[in-house]
Prior knowledge:
alpha+beta, Aminopeptidase, eight-stranded mixed beta sheet, 4 helices, 28% helix, globular
Amino acid sequence: MFFEAKTITLKDGRTAILRAPTQADAAPMVEWLRQTAGETDFILRTPEEVTMTAEQEAAFFQRLNDSPFDMMIVCEVEGEIAGNCHLSFNGKLKTRHRCSVAIGLTKKFWNLGIGSAMFGEMIAVAEQREGVIQMELDFIEGNSRARALYEKMGFRIVGVRPNGIRLQDGTLLNEYSMIRPV
Length: 182
């Protein structure tokens, strides 16, 4: 699905653009993925695991923009990728009432309202999707900032996967599942 661009004002007064990813975003996004993976343990990959090429990322963006089941929103601030989010609808008969969401922000753009704005857009799209009754996401134990955002946006914890995450130092963390009615 292609997301039509919108301009938002951040808490610090700057302007940000929420938009669909473009081919020109491919190389910067690969670097953004490496950067964000190195900034926190609350992302499911490490910087070394970001192995896709710019060409592969560009092809992925094209598939997302053309897909009836997936949508990505990129947040751009002053020409820099600040974050992205992904909304994915299930196509199978037994699960098409559900959709899943994921979000990530570069640390320097935390606490500016970007996460809330992107979630608001994803929720609006999900609410327009016929037959969808719930949105789903997972978060890692200790990620209190994300949990607070998700709860603010109407998600609630419905399950836990004990020791679902193993950090590079061997630390085991629980992974929590959340659902938001649409």
